[in-house]
């Protein structure tokens, strides 16, 4: 199975920060990586698809990038509504999620 | 508006069976591969099963192979997950979604406990 190693597992952040979360794929998954935001008690929401594409209705402060087998989600100028859990997903073949990143306010 | 509405979650004893349903609307259900994902309390997301548009191809994570069956009825725009021989470690919120996760249901809680 393809492993998605997500880091960090948690992060203490301040409003206005630039935040970067990374997933490293254990095998080539090409562009087939999505990022999801999840708030407590809610379903995940797709934020980025195919590694770099902003999903519908997602603020432009969110962006996705790829460098080799490393995939990153960056939030520029963090707002309070961005405090949530974030998950990466590879769906090249047999889909697997990263372990998740919890953002908490300092 | 796209909607995925799960139903069927409840408390069940270990070893028993349960069937989840997911009613889809607002998109051409038959054109999309579909999937189930679960999330145990305070844990991360876990991919459970995938089904092709026709239903002819399926995929399961190892821990549910032989116990869970994903199926679909395109005429009814409904996705199913038959869960047999349930274990305590299957306790989770189960989400219905399209492959890739553009759309998600609200989730249904399944608790396996004696």
Structure description:
The complex is a heterodimer of chains A (106) and B (114). In chain A, strands 2, 4, 5, 6, 9, 10 and 11 form a seven-stranded mixed β-sheet that branches. In chain A, strands 1-3-8-7 form a four-stranded antiparallel β-sheet, with no helix packed on it. With 106 residues, chain A is mainly beta. In chain A, 35% of the residues are buried. The mean pLDDT of chain A is 97. Chain A is 0% helix and 50% strand. Chain A has no helices and eleven strands. Chain B has strands at residues 3-7, 11-12, 18-25, 34-39, 45-51, 58-60, 68-73, 78-83, 92-98, 108-112. Chain B contains no helices and ten strands. Chain B has a six-stranded mixed β-sheet with strand order 2-10-9-4-5-6, with no helix packed on it. Chain B is 0% helix and 48% strand. Chain A binds chain B through residues 34, 36, 38, 43-46, 49, 55, 87, 89, 91, 94-100, and chain B through 35, 37, 44-47, 50, 59, 95, 99-102, 104-107.
The helix/strand order of chain B is EEEEEEEEEE
* Unreliable parts of chain B: none
Task: Indicate the mean pLDDT of chain B.
Answer: 97
Radius of gyration of chain A: 13 Å
Question: Fraction of residues of chain B in helices?
Answer: under 10%
Write down how many β-strands of chain A occur, each being a DSSP E stretch of 2 or more residues.
11
Question: What gap, in angstroms, lies between the N and C termini of chain B?
Answer: 40 Å
Estimated radius of gyration of chain B: 13 Å
Biggest interface found: A-B, 19 and 17 residues
Can you tell me the residue ranges of chain A where pLDDT is under 50 for at least 5 consecutive residues? none
Structural class of chain A: mainly beta
Structural class of chain B: mainly beta
Shape of chain A: globular
Mean pLDDT of chain A: 97
């Amino acid at each position: 199975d393809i492993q998605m190693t997500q880091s960090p597992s948690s992060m203490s952040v301040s409003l206005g920060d630039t935040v970067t979360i990374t997933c490293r794929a254990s095998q080539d998954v090409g562009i087939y990586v999505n990022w999801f935001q999840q708030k407590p008690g809610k379903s995940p929401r797709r934020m980025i698809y195919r590694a770099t594409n902003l999903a519908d209705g997602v603020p432009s402060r969110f962006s996705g990038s790829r460098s080799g087998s490393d995939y990153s989600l960056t939030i520029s100028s963090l707002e309070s509504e961005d405090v949530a859990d974030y998950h990466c997903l590879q769906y090249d073949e047999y889909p697997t999620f990263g372990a998740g990143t919890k953002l908490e306010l300092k | 508006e796209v909607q995925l509405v799960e139903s069927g979650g409840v408390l069940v004893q270990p070893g028993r069976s349960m069937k989840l349903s997911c009613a889809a609307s607002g998109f051409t259900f038959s054109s999309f591969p579909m999937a189930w994902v679960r999330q145990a309390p305070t844990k991360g997301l876990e991919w459970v099963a995938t089904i092709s548009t026709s239903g002819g191809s399926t995929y399961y994570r190892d821990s549910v192979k032989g116990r869970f069956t994903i199926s679909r009825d395109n005429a009814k725009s409904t996705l199913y997950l038959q869960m047999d021989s349930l274990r305590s470690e299957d306790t989770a919120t189960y989400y219905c979604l399209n492959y890739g996760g553009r759309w998600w249901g609200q989730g249904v809680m399944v608790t396996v406990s004696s």
